[in-house]
């Protein structure tokens, strides 16, 4: 029997498709939840840092107290997870900056919801008073380790999913083999009843189709046997009627001869 026609193959394929669909939906939902929650938390954390920095350094920005601003940015840049801190005036002139040199060289680009988290998460807050713009504070958070952890989580989840699919396929193979073996025995018994003596090797279809075909053959054989039995009974009844008529005729002749 061709494996692609086997009931076991169909069972493995069906279970595999269901497992793959459910696993894809589950992993996508989990990853979306993790990324959305993590992105929202990072955005909130970055904005809180900027808000605090604005509250502390806004007076120095207005007064252009560069030494104090440099001290502020150095202190904030020294905190774990901070890539850089930059302060500019209303004309975009740099007042103070500190942090990783490569991060400082990157152009500022604010993160938008729905985007993948960059390795350097940037946020910005303008400093204004009485409707006037005095400058801006830019903060970048280093997300290299977090992104690496998320990537590792994806890889581990995919590996667990692959292991789950492998186990499901293996179990379905065992169950399919058990069912196919039982059906093969049933087919063998039916063929023994029909006395065909053929091997269990269907040309097309799975084992159930083969069993159905053998049962249909058995039914046809039983119908033929019933027809033969009715014909024989009819023949016997005809012969019996003929014998009875002949016997009656002979009896009548004997009685007539004795009567004479």
Helix content: 55-70%
**What is the residue-averaged pLDDT?**
78
Number of helices: 5
Question: Largest beta sheet: what is the strand line-up?
Answer: 2-1-4-3
In angstroms, what separates the terminal alpha carbons? 83 Å
Q: How many β strands by DSSP?
A: 4
Strand pairing plus helix content: what structural class? alpha+beta
Beta-strand portion reads: 5-15%
The value of Rg in angstroms is 45 Å
Organism: Marinobacter xestospongiae
Transmembrane segments: 12-34, 158-180
Keywords: Membrane, Transmembrane, Transmembrane helix
Protein name: HAMP domain-containing protein
Write up this protein.
The protein has helices spanning 7-63, 66-77, 101-105, 144-194, 207-259, and strands at 82-89, 94-99, 120-129, 132-142. It is 68% helix and 13% strand. The protein has 260 residues and is an alpha+beta fold. Strands 2-1-4-3 form a four-stranded antiparallel sheet. α1 (7-63) runs antiparallel to α2, α1 runs antiparallel to α4 (144-194) and α4 runs parallel beside α5. It has five helices and four strands, in the order ααββαββαα.
Quick structural summary:
The chain is an alpha+beta fold and 260 residues long. The protein is 68% helix and 13% strand.
